[in-house]
Amino acid sequence: MNILVINSGSSSLKYQLFSMPDERPLCTGLIEKIGKEDSLIRHKTIREEDVQVTEKTLAVKDFGEGMKHVLALLTDSGLIKNTDDLEVIGHRVVHGGEYFSTAVVIDPDVKQKILGLSTLAPLHNPVNYKCIEFAEKIFPNAKQIAVFDTAFHQTMPEFAFRYAIPEKYYSEMHIRAYGFHGTSHKYVSERAMEWLGKPDVKMISIHLGNGCSITAVSGGKSIDTSMGFGPLSGLVMGTRSGDIDPSVILHLQRKEGKTADEMDKLLNNESGLLGLAGSNDMRDVMKMLESGNYDAELAIDMYAYRIKKYIGSYTAVLNGLDAIVFTAGVGENDALMREKICRGMEYFGIQLDAESNRIKSDQIREISEKSAGVKVLVIPTNEELEIARQSFELLREDPPCEQVILY
Ligand SMILES: Nc1ncnc2c1ncn2[C@@H]1O[C@H](COP(=O)(O)OP(=O)(O)O)[C@@H](O)[C@H]1O
Ligand SMILES: CC(=O)OP(=O)(O)O
Ligand SMILES: [Mg+2]
């Protein structure tokens, strides 16, 4: 069975076609910087030893246009000959709220719920929904599966996921922390457990992409995470503020008369690295740092400092620490950022080996000093493979495990 996986994030669309259950990728692809003039499309077709790469830079204005490019690339490379060639499409969906704790087959009710959660994940659920609609139209006979970022965090204890506001907002309106990037945190935690040969490992998984989050994982289960009700709290991100005192929001609403939509745009689209240094792309900000730009230096220091604070608090929550995992665009590629985060944490047993940290690789690797108490790992995430696995498992069950409605 071949499964196409669509991973629409806040700045990119990633896709992979897998042969299952052998988990063999038949193609992988990425469209970066969607919405900009210089979007980059990179597609790789893999046929045994023969790998063919197509790369182009052009303006891809939105995710709908991105999906058309994906379809053209799959067809042009001969991976799909007609629209009945695909039986299953697995979609990343960022917010599943309290509705979904596992992968589900998408039906009209699931779609309505995904769309209904859009105000809580405005950079994600609307595009996830758009990609589902596109796939349904092009591949009407394929099973469409949703795999939720929130699912992995359903194991958080209530004292970690509740907010200290009146109880009725939880019981009546389901206001609580959900957590995101769960598919990625789950995938890298499992790889770390295999690598370390230790199933009861206490670890901190740090996902640094355009969206960023950090999760405390104990024995493979999420016990706390930095994103909350929506994917806006916690770390400094590409365009999102992360943690901010709510009184700033109230102040801006009162003083400048900002509406909810204006605040949404300010905190989700105009903040983070973009608001501090003028670009949401860490590669640009790092270049500005090299040329001595103060705003870039401050943005980078704030980004690293926020992560350091969370590492400290999650070490307390876990009552110890065996490993830290860096993953996603920045976490996998930016040695200077990893160094800034880990610097001055010897007290915790965290000590990087400068040389291994500088090695560029797309493989799992250890970058800590041999003698350090905490292993620091770089693990390339593979949300698409995790989505393919969960989609395959869902369809394999007999009878198929349908959606779990929690309320
Ligand atoms: N070599 C690199 N050095 C620093 N940052 C990088 C590098 N490559 C990618 N990135 C960063 O990774 C981010 C994208 O990460 P990714 O995990 O693909 O994000 P998302 O899935 O949230 O769209 C980019 O915004 C860029 O800042
Ligand atoms: C949840 C989230 O922020 O996802 P991404 O990093 O892909 O934008
Ligand atoms: Mg992502």
UniProtKB/TrEMBL annotation:
Catalytic reactions on record: acetate + ATP = acetyl phosphate + ADP
GO cellular component: cytoplasm
Listed transmembrane segments: none
GO molecular function: acetate kinase activity; ATP binding; magnesium ion binding
Pathway assignment: Metabolic intermediate biosynthesis; acetyl-CoA biosynthesis; acetyl-CoA from acetate: step 1/2
Keyword Magnesium attached: yes
Cofactor binding, per record: Mg(2+). Can also accept Mn(2+).
Residue sites binding substrate per the record: R92
UniProt main location, coarse: cytoplasm
InterPro entries listed in its UniProt record: Ac/propionate_kinase, Aliphatic_acid_kin_short-chain, Aliphatic_acid_kinase_CS, ATPase_NBD
Gene Ontology BP, a term: acetate metabolic process
Keywords, sorted A to Z: ATP-binding, Cytoplasm, Kinase, Magnesium, Metal-binding, Nucleotide-binding, Transferase
Cofactor: Mg(2+); Mn(2+)
Annotated site (Transition state stabilizer): H181, R240
Subcellular location: Cytoplasm
Binding annotation for ATP: K14, H207, L208, G209, N210, G211, D281, M282, R283, G329, V330, G331, E332, N333
Positions with a binding annotation for Mg(2+): N7, E383
EC number per UniProt: 2.7.2.1
Function per UniProt: Catalyzes the formation of acetyl phosphate from acetate and ATP. Can also catalyze the reverse reaction.
Quaternary data: Homodimer.
Family to which the UniProt record says this protein belongs: Belongs to the acetokinase family.
Protein name listed in UniProt: Acetate kinase
Gene encoding the protein: ackA
